[in-house]
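[Q] Does anyone have a clean structure-token version of this?
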Amino acid sequence: MDSSRFRDELLFQTSMNAAKTMLENETITEQEYKEIRRIFLEKYDPPLGTLLSEIKLT
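[A] Here you go.
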């Protein structure tokens, strides 16, 4: 993975982590979370993001 793709992945995962926290704190709804995810998938086109973003790591 080149540095540009790594950057895209990192930005996507960081953004989704923030969105997940907002969802857990009930700052946003499930529907808003899904829309945020769709937008960030389109924006960053992360190489692993589609595989990892919905996996609970804890």
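[Q] Thanks! Anything notable?
[A] Helices lie at 3-24, 30-44, 49-52.
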